[in-house]
Amino acid sequence: MKRLIAALGALCVLTACASNDATAPEAPTATSAGAVPAGEPDVNGDGKVVIGVLSPGDINDKGYYQSFVDSAAAFATSQGWTVIKRGSVPTAEALAAARALCQQKVDLVALGAADLKDAIPASEEPVCAKTAWYVPSSGNVAQTPRIVLSADDPRQTMLAAGYATGLLLRARGGTSAGFVTGVEADYSVLAAKAYKAGIRTVVPDATLVTTYTGDFNDSAKAKEAVQAQMSQGVKAVYPYLGGATDAATAQANTGGVITLTPGTDRCASTSPTFDISVLFSPGDYFAAALQDFAKGKLAMGVTRVWQMGVDPYPTVKLCKGTAEQSQKLTAYMAGIGSKKIDVVADVDRLGS
Predict the structure, then answer these.
(1) What pLDDT is recorded for position 72?
(2) Where mainly found (predicted)?
C-alpha cells in the first residue's frame, strides 16, 4: 500500500490527508514559529553542508522515490552541497539508519516518506544534536521541536485542477469530465469531489463520471475505465493513478480528450501527452524546503503547510493554454492563496 500511495504523489500519506469536513491548518511562514537551528544551513558548523536522505523505497525506481532524491541532489549540486542517500530502508532499520547518517555529520536528515517515522527519535539523541530534520507529514507523525513536518491541503490542488479543466472544457464546448482512480477511500473520494467543484466553477452544469478501478497500478483496468468514460461522452479524463497513469492517458489520447497529471510536470511529454500538469509531488515540496534551508529560514518545531497561490507548490499549469486562460488560472490560484476563495465552502457547495 505504501508504494501505491507513493505513486500517487503521496497525496494522502505524505501530505495532510483531509477528511471531507476537515479544516486546513493555517500555513506558518518558515520563521513564524519554532526555531531555526543556529548556523543553518551549516547546522553542525563544519564548513560544509551535507544533506542525508533516507527512503523506504528504491531510489532508482524512476518514480516517486527517485524524484524525492533527485530533487535534493539537483538543488544540492547548485549550492555546492553533498547528498548522502540510502534507499530501500526497512522500517525496522529506520532508527539505526538515521543514527548512521548523523554520524556522517549531515546537516539535514530528510525522510523520503512517513513510513520511516521510527527514525524520528534519533533527532533527540546526542548523535543528532546538530542536525535539522525534514519529515513528510502524516496523521500518525507527531510534531516535535526538532523536526519540520511538510504538509498541504489536497482540496486546494484538486479544486484548481478542476478549474483548469473547466477553462479548457468551456473552450471546447464540453460539459462532461471523467475521473479514474484506484481504491475508493476517503482521500480519493474527496479528490474527486474537489475536482468536480473546480470544473463547476467555470462550467456550472458540468457532470463528472468517477470510476474506481480498485488498483492504482493496473493498466488494463485503467484503460478499460477510460474507454468506458469516453464512450459516455466525457471530454476530459483525470487519470488519478500511480503506475497505470501512462496507459490510461495514452488511451485518453486516442479520443482527443483533455488529460491531467497526478503530481508532476509532464507538459513536455510526447507519449503520452498531457494538457494540464497538476504539481503536488513531495519532491517538489522538498526542493522548495531546501531553498528555505539555504536561506537559513527552515524552522524546526512547525508544520510547514504548502499553500497554493503563496508557495511555489502546489500549483497547476496549462501545457498549451492561451494567455488568457493561463492568466485566469493564475488569478484563481492567487485567490486561493489570499483566501478570497473559500476552498472548503466551494468544494462542499459545488462538489456534491
Answers:
(1) 87
(2) membrane
Domain that holds residue 322: 154-280+312-350
Cell matching residue 16: 495532510
User: Residue 243 corresponds to which amino acid?
Assistant: G
In angstroms, the CA 240 to CA 161 distance is 11
SS3 at position 12? coil
Note whether 124 and 165 are same-domain residues.
Answer: no
Q: What is the pLDDT of residues 211-254, one digit of tens each?
A: 999 998 899 999 999 999 999 999 999 999 988 999 999 999 99
Determine contact, residues 22/235, Cβ cutoff 8 Å: no
Q: Are 67 and 189 within one domain?
A: no
DSSP state of 293: H
158 and 144, same domain (yes or no): no
* pLDDT score, position 127: 97
pTM: 0.79
d(CA 248, CA 219): 7
Are 257 and 300 in the same domain? no
DSSP 260: B
